[in-house]
Amino acid sequence: MSDFKKQHPVAAVSQVFETIKQNFITLIILFFIGTSNTEGYFLYFLAAGLGLSLIAGVFGWWVFRYRVKDDELQIKKGVFVKNNIYMSKDRIQVIDITEGLIQRMFGLVKVEIKTAGGGTESATISAITREAAEALRTELRKKNAEAEIPTDDAGDQLQDDEEEILDSWKLPNKDLVYAAFTSGNFGLIASILGAISGQLNEVINEETIEYLYEVLPGFNNVTMIITIVIAIIVVSWTLSFLGVIFNYSDFQLQKTSKELIVTSGLIERKHITIPFDRIQAVRFVEGVIRQPFGYGMVYIESAGFNQTQKERSIVIAPYLAGGKFSEFLNTFLTDYREPEYEITPKSKVKFRYIRRPMYLILVLLPIVWSILEYGWLMVFLLPLMGVLGWLRYRDAAIGSDENFIRSRFRMISRTTSIAKRIRVQNVELSQNPFQKRKDVYNLSTTVASGAGGMSFEVEDLNGEDCQRIYDWVVKKSSQTGSKDNDISETSFPPEDIQE
After folding, report:
1. Cα separation of 262 and 264, whole Å?
2. Is it the case that residue 153 has pLDDT exceeding 60?
3. Residue 468 domain-assigned (yes or no)
4. Are residues 175 and 300 in the same domain?
5. Which pairs count as long-range contacts for 490-495, CB under 8 Å and 24+ apart, including other chains?
6. Looking at per-residue confidence, does 234 or 255 come out higher?
7. Which carries the bigger pLDDT value, residue 447 or residue 35?
8. Which pTM value belongs to this model?
């Protein structure tokens, strides 16, 4: 594969759709704002923007070339600014193959090559055949494979078992529907729809409201507000439901001797590989809707390549019973254990937990009350915030053993994280003046994840307990060499605790 090759012409169109997908919410908001304030001229600007994007995609496709030569992937691209990319085989960590909607229509796939510290977008081949993608992946892995494949007495290569599937797990269709029903994403979608609804002045105006008052007996300002809120909730929940179905349809997790393979998607079919040696931590997240039913999602934090904020945590089980989490770990992440919880907040900070979520409501209440006629209804959120604070107090815990740390905490959803000691990058201790009176601290441990890090924070722990975790990290730092020691700093000295 020493000669430069081009992508399929569909790459020009797929780039336009990729731009639309990445900015979909922004475009929707701009659409409603623009059409209501510019007398329709916004549509012309939008069409012109899409046309320019298509032209840029055509030129981008024309100049794009790729090949594998001298043990490296070489990519040439750029219309006005030439960009040459050289990725050594030894640095390539992950090769993902994705079937987007446009690619599937033409029997094509998209290939993403991710390296240690390299960007994902710059190493993306948007549209090639499945056969070409498999050949490229084989070529990029050939060097390592040739070094590791055993040979028999005659010197012939034996079959490599690296790709042998050792275990697999599929999300049943019934659980997929349950996962969609209990998804917590509708809250974010509802807030977006609420912002959009404020721009519908041409539909929701005084004439429309007066007409509704005449047609619907008993319809008034209160019922109108309730109707709008219910409509936003229903629409946002429907979009959230469909989003889960599209993202996790036909979800499958496979395990080989060296990596996990995640395959999912109804419209866009994704194929993600995660090497075991890049996994930093595992998380089990129980949403407020799923937790009463005993279910949650399993994520892993992976490092070694530059991912976007959205993708840095990878879902390996979209809907899993909490009682089966330990069994799941024993099957797919056999070198992870769950230490018993031994550190929890003391009873002296219980009311700190209960009061803390109320502060925001108390600050916003007079402001909202002065702006909205029914803003005083926010007062009914105070008991809910108190319950949330109590749940945070009840759930907060840390456990550790010789090699692992296990943290449990809650913002809205309850999160349980498990990280290896050698993967802990940083331990941070923070204390505000109110915590100082009770000698308590917020303890945060950080592991590498994507381009940045993922932190797990437990609040209001005793100083002595924090000292134990500090000693745990120092022990790791002193026992591991520079090659395996990923810790960058420890954010507090032990003498601060002793004081």
Report:
1. 7
2. no
3. no
4. yes
5. 490/426, 490/427, 491/426, 491/427, 491/428, 491/429, 492/427, 492/428, 492/429, 492/466, 494/467, 494/470
6. 255
7. 447
8. 0.75
Are β-strands 397-400 and 414-420 bridged in parallel, bridged antiparallel, or unpaired? Answer: unpaired
Q: Which residue has the tokens 């659980």?
A: 175
Q: How much is the pLDDT for 499?
A: 42
Q: Which domain holds residue 271?
A: 163-276+287-333
Quick check: is 53 in a domain? yes
Give the number of other CB atoms < 10 A from CB of residue 340: 9
308/384 same-domain check: no
Number of CB atoms found within 10 A of residue 228's CB: 14
- The 8 Å CB, 24+ separation contacts for 438-446 are 438/348, 438/349, 438/352, 439/463, 440/345, 440/346, 440/349, 441/466, 441/497, 443/398, 443/469, 445/405, 445/407, 445/419, 445/469
Whole-angstrom Cα distance, residue 170 to residue 165? 13
Exposure on the CB side of residue 155, measured as CA atoms within 13 A: 0
Backbone angles phi, psi at 201, to 5 degrees: -65, -30
Q: Which amino acid is at 296?
A: G
| Shared domain check, 84 and 201 | no
**Angle at alpha carbon of residue 57, lines to 54 and 63, rounded to 5°:** 150
Place of tokens 């989490």: 325
* Residues 425, 368 contacting (CB under 8 angstroms): no
Count Cβ atoms below 10 Å from residue 484 Cβ, excluding itself: 10
